[in-house]
Structures are given as C-alpha cells and as structure tokens.
Design brief:
The complex is a heterodimer of chains A (about 290) and B (about 280). Chain A is α+β, with helices and mostly antiparallel strands. Helices cover about 15% and strands about 15% of the residues of chain A. Chain A has a single domain, classed as paralog of FGE (formylglycine-generating enzyme). In chain B, a hairpin with a 2-residue loop joins β1 and β2. In chain B, α1 runs antiparallel to α2. The chains are: A alpha+beta (about 290), B alpha+beta (about 280).
Chain lengths: ~290, ~280
C-alpha cells in the first residue's frame, strides 16, 4: 500500500524522499478525478467507486475481502531470500507456482503449525494466509494462528459485519449436488472456488459451507443454539453467555462441509456460532482474510 | 481498505510538494497534519480515523445502476450526489412509509447494486429497514455501517435532550421523524447531525440478544439496554444507538440497545454509513 501511494504521488510529478514515503499512512491515492491507472473491474458489482481491490480479493462495501478461503503457507527465509515472495503475497499476486518456487509448504491440511503456537506466539513472519483458487483451504487452526497468518500477509480477519456483506447472495443450501453447489454435506473440504455456484453477490467463493470461517469478533462464549426462528434455517448458536469454560467465544460464520450445527441446511449466509473458544482447532474451521 | 480514501493522501502529497524542500521538520509537520486532519468526502465528517456520514441515510433505488446510471452511482460513492442528481437518474426513495425495499430482502439477499444509502440534508431519513438491508445499502454506496465505537466518536458533543423545542433541539419528543439536519442545534462536536434522536441508528456490532435494560446508573439518564444475554430464539441482537423521536430524555449520545434482532423493522430505526 505504501509503495503504491508513493508511486501515485510520483506520477503526479512530485518527488518524495524515501523516509517520508515510508511514513505515509496505508491509504492509497486513488482518484476520484480519474488520474490513477484503471483498476481491475471486479465483476458487475465491482467497486462503483472506480477503485478496486487487489486481484486476490473482492470489494465488499468499504473492505476488500479475500475471494477464497485461506490456504496457509510456511515461507522459509521470508526476510531475506523470499522477501520478494512475501511482498507478492501481500499485494495479492502470489501464485502456487511462486510459493513452491520459494520453497513454501502448505500447512493445516494434514500437519500442524508448530512452532507458530496455538496462542499466536512465534508466528510473526512464519505462516502466511494466501487467497488462492483450487487449493484445499487450511483448517485445524486456532483463531490466534489465523489472525497471525492474515497479519503476516498484511491483512486481518474480517469483522462479523464485513463477513456478512461479503456473504450476501451466496446460495443458502438445501441440497449439495457435490459439484457446483456449496459444499455443505460431503464431510471433507473441497478445493477453493471449485463449487462454481457457491459465490456471493460480491464475488467471494465458499462463504457458505466448505470450511466454516473464523471472524474477528469475540463475545462471551455462547451457551445455546436457539436458531433464527422462522426467519432462516441457518445455524444460530450465538445466544446466552456461558460463565464456565476456557475463554471467550470467537465467532465462526457460514457453516461447513458437515458437522452438527455447521453443515447441511444449517450452513448458509446467516450461520453463526459463538460457542467455540479462540483456542479451538477443528478440521471444519478455517478462515479468510480482509484488508 | 479499498482505495477510496484518497483525497486525504493526495492532499498530503500536494501539501508536501508545496513545502518545497522536505526538511525533517517539514516532513514531521506534514505527517502530523495528515494524521490529525482527516479529509473526508463532502457527505461525511471526520471522526477519528473514520469518515462518518453527516446525515442519517436516505435509501434510494437506482435503476440501471451498472449501466445508464453508473455515473450517478459513482457520484454517490464519492459523496457528491444531490437530490437533483438522484431524481434526474430516476432514483426513488425507499423506507419512508413502509418496508418497500423488495426485491432487496430482509436478509440482505438480492440487494447488490439495488439500494443505495445517501447522506443528504433535508430528507426524511429512511427507516422500516432490517440490519441486513441497511448494511447492503451502505455497501452498494462503497461504505459500511460504523461500529458502536466509531458511532460514539461521531456522537460525542451532541446535546443530551432534555426537552425538545420542536425546531432546533434534537428530535426526541415529536413522535415524528424530521428532515435530516433540520434540527440545527442537534450536531455533534465532529459535525454530524441527528446522532441523538430522530431515528435510532443500527451500527455494525452483533451481540447475544440482550436480556434487560439496566440503565447507566447515576452516570446518565440515557437508555442502556445492553445487559445480560438472552437464550430466546430469533437471532442475535444488533446494537442500536442514539435513541429516537419518541424517546424523550432516554435519547442521548449514550443511548444503546442490544435487545433488537437483526431482522426487526421499526419506523423509528434507521442508520447512517461510514467509510
């Protein structure tokens, strides 16, 4: 973001010294006057502002939400040999080929994130969340690790409200035909974006089903799954406030490829669960990032 | 963030250029200015790190939003659309009499590129709207609902009603909604109108549905219904701020409710957006 800011200023004919440019706040000059290079158009819904998001993300109101559920990669030597790769990740342009060329390995499909710990310690400049199509999204990850994976990529977990904007328009499953519908009944994660109908009005894939997704918000750990009443059959486990247990609840959205109150018809754009503590790691919970 | 906030950095760049030699002191001054004076689009005010809409939203259906009216939509997102622009584009205001947002549904489906929240003076702000619809109306305008904390920064300094004189005070006792910005004394320290009274305002935050109204104790007479956590069915609660035209002394910059469900519609609940 900083780099783009300084480039934009340079194109205006100004020269900034490097130190000052580095202090520029993370706000990019875009241009309501049409002076910036055309940004990518993101579908028909794209940013009516004429400004856009990085290619790995879609515009959802005032935020850029990752288009795909995150695959998490360990990048060796991120500050030295792979500094350029990390930069590419952060600007949303890294591909699987880039990652493997840099010796990066995906985590959270079969193996653990250690030494990046469940509580988020020892994770800086270690694990990187990447929004890639056709990857098995990473799961078995705590909220803290997910947050670190986003942070290392220059991103963050979306808030619950931001997630909702990105999810609206996704089909609310009924049945799962196993190919194009949202993955809500297979019992295993499918590659990101492979369920072609499972896309939201803003262009984000797999918001419903596949892996359920951590969002930023914490709450007192929920005590009940009360449902939405007649309004929706989606899971609604964000009620009451437990006074026992190990930690607060972190909200999980969208439902998953299966599992109790997460799968089947209870998956959907309204599915919400506040019963899991942020230190929980489950095979059916992953995340995506925003910036 | 999307690349919309914009003029702020551009202005900073221009100013730096105007300063000529970039001494360390000059650079620091520029950074300080950039940090403390946030440049917001004309339809909003700076409230800390966010641009909060100056007025409660009026919600408009814009036909052909991605084709014929693409320019109008761009104007909306940049905060420059006027009522004249909207009517010229064939836009119609929704939510002044009833929940007439369909096909944009109560759950936020079928709303993309359909309904647009606009921060305009002298309009009856739209209500009869669910949280999901409000959120979509903001998103289509390139904005979002503010968080409760952001809303608070925008509200501080607004008079805490006592009586409502019916003309300049915050509209807290008229039983009817008034035109945005028409209550001239009802403005916050940051320049936002009607943060207190007129319509209560949805903000972004969800909570377990609150169970009670415990009040602020001796601290304030504003409504405080964010306590406990109900296990009743029907969905989470959403925070609602500021009180409405019927709340009298219970309206105010500290008024907060968590006992209203996301899908509820009232004539006294509206919203404003942020970016």
């Amino acid at each position: 973001m900083m780099r783009r800011m300084s480039m934009a200023v340079l194109t205006m004919g100004f020269v900034m010294n490097a130190a000052l440019a580095a202090r520029t706040p993370p706000v990019v000059v875009a241009s309501d006057a049409g002076t910036t290079p055309a940004s990518t158009t993101i579908g028909s819904i794209g940013p009516a502002t004429g400004t856009g998001c990085a290619p790995d993300a879609v515009a959802a109101g005032a935020v850029c939400l990752d288009k795909y559920e995150a695959s998490v990669w360990r990048v060796p030597e991120p500050a030295t040999a792979n500094a350029a790769l990390v930069k590419k990740i952060q600007v949303g342009k890294a591909t699987r080929a880039d990652l493997t060329a840099g010796g990066a390995t995906q985590l959270g499909t079969t193996v653990d994130y250690d030494p990046c710990a469940d509580n988020g310690q020892n994770c800086a400049n270690d694990i990187y969340a990447v929004s890639l199509p056709s990857e098995i999204p990473s799961s078995r990850i705590t909220w803290f690790q997910a947050q670190e994976a986003c942070a290392n990529s220059g991103k963050r977990l979306p808030s619950n409200a931001e997630w909702q904007t990105g999810a609206n328009g996704s089909p609310d499953p009924g049945t799962d035909n196993g190919t194009t519908d949202c993955n809500s009944a297979t019992g295993t994660a499918s590659p990101t974006g492979s369920r072609s109908s499972c896309v939201s009005a803003r262009g984000a894939f797999d918001m419903v089903g596949n892996v359920a997704e951590w969002v930023a918000d914490w709450a007192p750990r929920s005590a009940q799954c009360t449902g939405w009443g007649g309004f929706s059959d989606d899971g609604m486990c964000f009620a009451g406030a437990s006074e026992v247990g190990t930690g607060p609840g972190a909200l999980v959205r969208g439902g998953s490829f299966s599992f109790a109150s997460f799968g089947g018809p209870t998956a959907g754009p309204l599915s919400i669960n506040g019963t899991l503590q942020p230190t929980a790691g489950n095979v059916f919970i992953g995340f995506r990032c925003a910036r | 963030m999307k690349r919309t906030l914009v003029r702020r950095s551009l202005a900073a760049g221009l100013m730096m250029a105007a300063m000529g030699t970039m001494s360390a002191t000059g650079a620091q001054a520029a950074v300080a200015l950039r940090t403390h004076v946030k440049k917001c689009p004309a339809d909003s005010v700076a409230a800390g790190t966010v641009c909060l809409d100056k007025y409660e939203a009026s919600v408009w259906r814009v036909p052909d939003a991605t084709t014929t009216n693409a320019t109008l939509v761009r104007k909306i997102t940049l905060g420059r659309a006027t009522r004249a622009d909207l009517t010229a584009g064939g836009a119609t205001q929704l939510g002044t009499e009833s929940d007439d947002y369909a096909p944009c549904a109560d759950n936020g489906q079928n709303c993309a590129d359909d309904i647009f929240a606009v921060s305009l003076p002298s309009e009856i702000p739209s209500s009869h709207i669910t949280w999901f619809q409000a959120q979509e109306a903001c998103a289509n305008a390139g904005k979002r609902l503010p968080t409760s904390a952001e809303w608070q920064v925008g509200a501080n300094g607004t008079p805490d009603p006592g009586p409502d004189d019916g003309t300049t005070d915050c509209n807290s006792g008229s039983d009817f909604v008034s035109a945005t910005g028409s209550r001239s004394a009802c403005v916050s320290a940051r320049g936002a109108y009607d943060m207190v009274g007129n319509l209560e305002e949805w903000v972004a935050d969800w909570v377990p549905l609150s169970a009670g109204c415990s009040g602020w104790g001796g601290f304030s007479d504003d409504r405080m219904c964010l306590s406990g956590a109900s296990e009743a069915t029907g969905g989470p609660g959403v925070l609602i701020r500021g009180g409405s035209f019927v709340d009298g002394a219970n309206a105010g910059p500290l008024s907060i409710l968590g006992a209203i469900r996301t899908v509820t519609i009232f004539s006294f609940i509206g919203f404003r957006c942020a970016r």
